[in-house]
Amino acid sequence: MGRDSASDDDEADAAELLAEVEEELREQRAEEATNMFVSVKKIRDFAKTEQPAETVNVSTIMCVLDSERLENNRGSRVNLVEGYMQRHIKSYGKTLARMDKFRSDARVLKLTVWDPKNRSVGKPRFRSGGVYEFKKVHSLTFYHNTLQGCVQAVGAANPGLIEEFPDFATAKRARLSELPSDGDMEEDQE
Fold this sequence. Notes:
Elements: H1 2-34, E1 36-37, H2 40-50, E2 58-69, E3 75-82, H3 89-98, H4 101-105, E4 109-114, E5 131-143, E6 146-152, E7 162-165, H5 168-178, H6 182-189
Parallel strand pairs: 1-2, 4-6
Antiparallel strand pairs: 2-3, 2-5, 3-4, 5-6, 5-7
């Protein structure tokens, strides 16, 4: 009898753990669907009003203004602007360069993209004018007037976190097609 009771307790614990994990997955999907930004202004407003914890993830579809390797060679600093500015990136960049730093920093999201821990994986390269989707951006904070965030680059453990698209419209269509519908959540539960 003691053996059956222990087995029943194990099954109850397993069911409880599965329910917790499924709820966490629902929260993650809701967060991914809601915290999606294509505008520097909107992500800045979100960071100011919500003051998200470091663990809150957001996604962005934006255009690379410019990028550079970090001095420690463990990642890249990527300056992002609205994805729809892709066709105007050179003139927009020149205009921002003529503005004072405080004003131009309000128009850019600075993202630190850390290299994968596995050094055999290629380091990401970012093309000025390229439209990218960055998933699981975290640690959104303001440094003076600059909004900054971080993301771990693609590696074997986290594929698909950074994806390049030919243009902004294609990126938006791809994002909309992968968002879960309510029916997807029910299928996952079966």
